[in-house]
């Protein structure tokens, strides 16, 4: 019989939750429970993203751990997890078509260079040398040669399998209703059906649902909910090794090792109302539907940058929730007024590529160690008024 008491209870069975569980178990903390609200691991954003493993284009507050993961974790992750994560490190082009685009890209590149990232601006000629299939309308780009991409499905699966092998207990169909303090410390996790789990430390890494759960112990996390959509094309001849995106944020994507292209995008017109259970105002997995307006807008944008894909057929599309922090970067820290609780949410649609580093740092927080890099700028209370 499985015990409902553990050293650590992790709320959220996505790639970050599974990575945290693995690194905790690897470090010797064997008593770990992971609670996933749906009936499958990685059902949320972890299986609904385009697989970017990038540093360029990020807020400088994210760069230290994004860079750490790419330098120290991603290169050997397939071997460590025993799955092919399809990690490919061939660089990232963030393209521009107008002078305004180039100014935006240059500002991002300069801020990244200020913390040591190898990223530079390239002109139209060099863009075409890196990727000859791009439109002549692309006048330049930022280029980060150490960026890349990977497969979110196999990466999440790998962390899940290795955590299982190390003794982590996973519960699916375990939606969390509330947290409860015992003698001033967050200790109990109560499911919708009344089942209670207890842990010395609770890690809340449940996407946007983290906000409602944290509120049950008086902690409000300033973030909102957005939709991102992805599509996959039929297999194409080998064209592109790099990850690519654009200054206008119309889309991002890459070509997989088996030939299909994977793209993520939004049109700005998505509505969330139809995907929310009106009785609870909570995202309902059964209502996850793609938006024809987004797909058509995405395809027009993609054709405008990669004309060679004009006749490519779409074989699959899907959508997923973004837990968008109000300032665009995640909340990663223990919670002072709720001892025992660690927040890891608000990843704003770019949490997959940093998952190895985040999982490692969460395990370090649990053990009371210094994280591999300083992430004090990502504390949950950064919006509090200055005294």
From TrEMBL:
Ranges where the FAD dependent oxidoreductase domain occurs: 7-365
EC numbers, comma separated: 1.-.-.-
Keywords from the UniProt entry: Oxidoreductase
Coiled coil: none
One MF annotation (Gene Ontology) recorded for this entry: oxidoreductase activity
Entries under InterPro entries matching the protein: FAD-dep_OxRdtase, FAD/NAD-bd_sf
Keyword ATP-binding belongs to the record: no
Phosphoprotein in keyword set: no
Protein name: FAD-binding oxidoreductase
Source organism of this protein record: Blautia intestinihominis
